[in-house]
Amino acid sequence: MASTVTNVAIDCANAYRLALFWSEVTGHPVDPEDQPGDTETAITLPGGPTLYFNEVPEPKSVKNRIHLCLRPDTSREAEVERLLGLGASLVDDRRKPDGWGWVVLADPEGNEFCMLLAESERAALSS
């Protein structure tokens, strides 16, 4: 027997607004039935779990113990700059001089996530 991950729940203060940010990050739309003011909002990722945004009364207070790791279609650097432009913030730069590593960012509500190397960058560094 096994269990299937159906969604990743993200606690937040404003579900719809945070879902709009993540819609821009992932390139996938917020569920068409969701509206501003909804306390629960979702983005269904093709072939993957749903990102589920749930409003909670308490603010974020510590580092996430579970977080998303993203692999860009372009380059790590280009995607980091794009996401900073969308409202993400830099939390920690784990890039190494040899090109490996990752960047820790936070969404507008402070939820951390990592930006990894693109597959093409990984292949170039491995050869």
Mean pLDDT, all residues: 96
Query: Based on helices, strands and strand pairing, what is the structural class?
Result: alpha/beta
How many separate helices?
Answer: 3
The spatial strand order of the largest sheet comes to 4-7-6-5
Low-confidence parts lasting 5 or more residues at pLDDT below 50? none
Radius of gyration: 15 Å
Give a quick account of the main beta sheet: strands, pairing sense, barrel closure: 4 strands, mixed
The tally of beta strands, per DSSP, is 7
Question: What is the string of helix and strand elements?
Answer: EHEEEHEEEH
Features:
127 residues
Describe the structure.
The chain has 127 residues and is an alpha/beta fold. 24% of the residues lie in helices and 26% in strands. The chain contains three helices and seven strands. The strands form two sheets. Strands 4-7-6-5 form a four-stranded mixed β-sheet, with helices on one face. A three-stranded mixed β-sheet has the order 1-3-2, with helices on one face. The protein starts with 6 loop residues before the first strand and ends with a helix. The relative contact order is 0.18. The model has no long low-confidence stretch (mean pLDDT 96).
